[in-house]
Write a structure and sequence with these properties.
60s Ribosomal Protein L30, Chain: A; alpha+beta; 200 residues
Length: 200
């Protein structure tokens, strides 16, 4: 059975001034959330999570991707991206993980924005109004530090004990006035091969 969605939320914030200085390009960050009934609620320990993952994850991925794209103005506008889930206190962190750590969820988003990087993520357990943190990174370049961002918000009445909050995040732009460089400079200074960062 597809996910039983109680409600969806769309969070959009635009930063015009950072550090007392006007941003040359405003930073827009977007979060699309679905509050769903935990599909494993009331079943005790479930050994095989796969059937419910297959039922719920694809539809959630498509729904939340569509919400992000509409708010961003299209997949080409999305530069940073990430995902998150919070399971209510009666559930397992594995339940939150199961719904977002499957290609059937993430590939909707990855393909829609033309991404190459993996989706940064958090998966946690908490009560209603728990802090939801969605880490972002550049969709094509995991070493581009300007796009290391975090969307932080909460939903006053979710997750209920038998619910899961599932979310996708996006940025249009990077941090205003970013000035800490990218990880490649560190690798070079530390003597690592940029083509093979694990080497010395």
């Amino acid at each position: 059975m597809p996910a039983e969605i109680r409600k969806t939320l769309l969070h959009v914030e635009t930063t015009w001034i950072e550090g007392g200085k006007v941003a040359p390009v405003p930073l827009k960050m977007i979060a699309a959330l679905a509050v769903i009934r935990n599909p494993w609620a009331g079943q005790g320990f479930v050994e095989d999570l796969r059937p419910a993952i297959l039922d719920c994850a694809p539809g959630l991925g498509a729904l939340l991707t569509g919400m992000v794209l509409e708010a961003a103005g299209g997949g080409d506008k999305v530069e940073g991206y990430g995902k998150a889930a919070i399971v209510g206190v009666n559930g397992e962190v594995e339940h939150a993980s199961g719904l977002i750590h499957t290609l059937r969820f993430g590939n909707h988003y990855r393909e829609a924005v033309g991404a190459k990087s993996y989706l940064a993520f958090t998966n946690t357990r908490g009560p209603a109004n728990a802090s939801l943190q969605i880490p972002l990174m550049d969709k094509n370049d995991g070493g581009r530090r300007s796009h290391y961002l975090t969307i932080q918000l909460s939903v006053a009445d979710a997750p209920a004990p038998d619910e899961i909050v599932v979310a996708l995040g996006a940025s249009v732009g990077g941090r205003p006035h970013h000035r800490i460089g990218d990880r490649y400079q560190d690798l070079k200074e530390l003597g690592h091969d940029l083509e093979n960062p694990a080497s010395v």
